[in-house]
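All the exercises in this workshop are built on plain-text protein records. A record pairs a protein's sequence with a compact description of its fold. The structure tokens are whole numbers drawn from a learned vocabulary of backbone shapes. Once this layout is familiar, the rest of the handout is easier to follow. An example says more than a description, so a record of this kind follows.
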Amino acid sequence: MGDDYVISFLALLERNERYVFKECLEHILCPFFPFITLVHTSNTGQVIDTLTKIQGRLNGYFIRVDGFLIIAVNPELYDSEEIMRQLYNVNTLVRLK
């Protein structure tokens, strides 16, 4: 997966950030991992695919805040156990260079 794929993911994050900070101020913010981790993975495309699927499963929005990749979730849909499961799944997938 090339640079266009990463650029598309970054554009998604920017759209999510604009939306969350304007329309979803009540959402719960749950950190996933330091954003820089994506730069140092050897399987960035696979990780991005998984993050995109997780965003859909959790009905949330991935955003960047203070150097972390964070999922913003509606309080009515918040399920801490499911978030921890998804966090575990993506962290086991990350392969550092």
Q: What stands out?
A: The first strand starts at residue 28 and ends at 34. The two ends are 16 Å apart (CA to CA). The chain has a mean pLDDT of 92.
